[in-house]
Amino acid sequence: MHELSPFIRAMDSFARQQGRHELPWRQTHTTPYGVWVSEVMLQQTQVQRVIPYYLAFMERFPDIFCLSCASWEEFLPLYRGLGYYRRGENMLACASQVVKFYEGEFPREKKALMALPGIGEYTASAILSFGYGLPHLAFDTNMQKVFGRYLHGNRKAKVDKVSVENIISREEVDMARFNGAVMDFAATLCQRTPHCHICPVKTHCCYARHSGTTEPAAVTRLPRTAFDYRRARVYLWLHQRHRCYYSAYSDSFAPFVLAVGVTSRQQIKEYFRTAFELEVAVRPPHARGQVQDHPALLVHAQILQGEANFCQFPPDEIYRHPRGFIPEG
């Protein structure tokens, strides 16, 4: 394997000089619980957006015992806006299990952690590393990008994670410090378009040595065909955790057809709040097209709070109805 010692030394220096030490979950008093909360919130969400959510959440639920006693109605206001609400449901389930089976302390074994709701290999490694100081490499998409370029010249190249972790462990590295350094390095220098001219490992990096020619160029997105949002209608599939779908009709399934002009996610939320006293999470449109020569946006929305007084259908039935697959105008 390509020599990692220069990279390890560079990351130690980078952590001291340019590490994001101000992040609230990077403080010395942060518990494994705080690490877990931050990692869940950071999934597919930008760091700066997470900070105020994290601070408010930790003030309301300072430990896992408080969170384990919370209802969905108490939890939701502190989580609303982060999206991917299954993560929130898993947080409540996970907190309950940690209190019930582990007396409120996250287990120190990766296998036991990964058996908890919503915790995968990366999150388990992050808890063990940042929360307990154990030698686990928190390998995520950022590390894939960095090690793929450093070792193989391509951010998507296959990386032998086990070998990398073993090498770093033998160097007696502070793994939490190292993990944080690579995350910060990926976010500030080794970006999608990397800043190789100021990179501290450019002389050892396979990507930099080959001037980036070993990595395929990013795909240039073609401009989208003009879509007339002013005339568009939203066809909306309303569901409850995808376990049941609600119909706009009483006798058969059909999506909700909203008025022309009600197309943004905020407008859709306000419509269901005003018309039905429902709080909904709205996903970005999964398709655009024409319905009876009218611009149409196909959207899914999940009920978060409120009582839905609509006819219900299981997921496997909704497309059996003539109005379920191709909306009627």
Automatic annotation (TrEMBL):
Belongs to the Nth/MutY family. The keyword Transferase does not apply. It is an enzyme of class 3 (hydrolase). Its EC number is 3.2.2.31. Adenine glycosylase active on G-A mispairs. MutY also corrects error-prone DNA synthesis past GO lesions which are due to the oxidatively damaged form of guanine: 7,8-dihydro-8-oxoguanine (8-oxo-dGTP). PROSITE patterns: ENDONUCLEASE_III_2. Residues 41-188 form the HhH-GPD domain. GO terms for biological process: base-excision repair; mismatch repair. SMART domains: ENDO3c. Keywords: DNA damage, DNA repair, Glycosidase, Hydrolase, Iron, Iron-sulfur, Metal-binding. It catalyses: Hydrolyzes free adenine bases from 7,8-dihydro-8-oxoguanine:adenine mismatched double-stranded DNA, leaving an apurinic site. The keyword Hydrolase applies. Its cofactor is [4Fe-4S] cluster. InterPro entries: DNA_glycosylase (IPR011257), Endonuclease-III-like_CS2 (IPR004036), HhH-GPD_domain (IPR003265), HhH_base_excis_C (IPR023170), HhH_motif (IPR000445), MIG/MutY (IPR044298). Signal peptide: none annotated. CDD domains: ENDO3c. This is Adenine DNA glycosylase. GO terms for molecular function: 8-oxo-7,8-dihydroguanine DNA N-glycosylase activity; adenine/guanine mispair binding; iron-sulfur cluster binding; metal ion binding; oxidized purine DNA binding; purine-specific mismatch base pair DNA N-glycosylase activity. Pfam families: HHH, HhH-GPD.
